[in-house]
Design brief:
Largest sheet: none
Number of domains: 1
Catalytic activity: glycerol(in) = glycerol(out); H2O(in) = H2O(out); urea(in) = urea(out)
Radius of gyration: 19 Å
Organism: Ibidorhyncha struthersii
Helix content: 55-70%
GO molecular function: glycerol channel activity; urea transmembrane transporter activity; water channel activity
Number of helices: 9
Structural class: mainly alpha
Family: Belongs to the MIP/aquaporin (TC 1.A.8) family.
Membrane topology: Multi-pass membrane protein
Length: 248
């Protein structure tokens, strides 16, 4: 009885009553989980030389991570998880503009922290695979574990079009799933359907740029690699360099 009373008091003290704070923490936690699973799938594939994962398993990990993240935050913040989706909600007048920069900040912070957690989790593997050098190009580059980079053949214009189409399709698909006037998804299975949507986009449009259809998913980890020692090259574009074209 005494321990139960102490637990209830602790819960009362830790309970967050401010709605905005709850929404921010929900976005932060959900994006953290989303990016941690996504990047870990990529790290496992790359550092094992493809023996313990492939592009298909990495894409599947990312799609399932979306499902888990939506289940985690959907009832609190709506599980935006993506600045592009938050922007779309603002344009459709379904989300207040003043919340937009707050959500984007939380989404970016969550992805940045997740990149750090992935780096810590695969620290030994990354340094072993890279032969002790953190590079953005060459056969042992590891920057692509964290952020997405264009393929050798891709031009800047084609890369821009790739992202517009991929992200646009994602938003259009989510809006269709959410629209109650359409043939409804069974209640509670919406995250599963969104995950399937993400997976279909990844396996059909991932070859050009790696399918970075979430700006926070790409920018937060890219910023982490800059801070962690990969250098400013992670923000620069160069065609035909390394495993794919690189940002130089």
């Amino acid at each position: 009885m005494g321990s139960a009373s102490v637990l209830k008091r602790a819960q009362a003290l830790l309970r967050i009553r401010n709605q905005l704070a709850r929404e921010c923490l929900a976005e932060l936690l959900a994006v953290f989980v989303l990016i941690l699973i996504t990047l870990s799938g990529s790290a496992q594939m790359v550092t094992s030389f493809g023996t313990r994962g492939s592009l298909l398993t990495a894409y599947l990990a990312g799609a399932l991570a979306v499902m888990v993240a939506i289940y985690m935050a959907g009832g609190v913040s709506g599980a935006h998880l993506n600045p592009a989706f938050s922007l779309s909600m603002c344009l459709l007048e379904q989300f207040p503009w003043w919340k937009f920069p707050v959500f984007v900040a939380m989404q970016t912070l969550g992805s940045f922290i997740a990149a750090g957690a992935t780096y810590a989790l695969y620290y030994d593997a990354i340094w072993h695979y890279s032969n002790g050098t953190l590079t953005t190009s060459g056969p042992r580059e590891t920057a692509s574990i964290f952020a997405t980079y264009p393929s050798d053949y891709l031009s800047l214009a084609n890369g821009f079009l790739d992202q517009v189409i991929g992200t646009g399709l994602l938003i259009l698909g989510i809006l269709a799933i959410m629209d109650t006037r359409n043939k409804g998804v069974p209640k509670g299975l919406e995250p599963v359907v969104v995950a399937l949507l993400v997976f279909s986009i990844e396996i059909s449009m991932g070859s050009n740029c790696g399918c970075p259809i979430n700006p926070a998913r790409d920018f937060g980890p890219r910023l982490f690699t800059y801070v962690a020692g990969w250098g400013a090259e992670v923000f620069r574009w160069v065609e035909g360099r390394g495993r794919g074209g690189r940002w130089q």
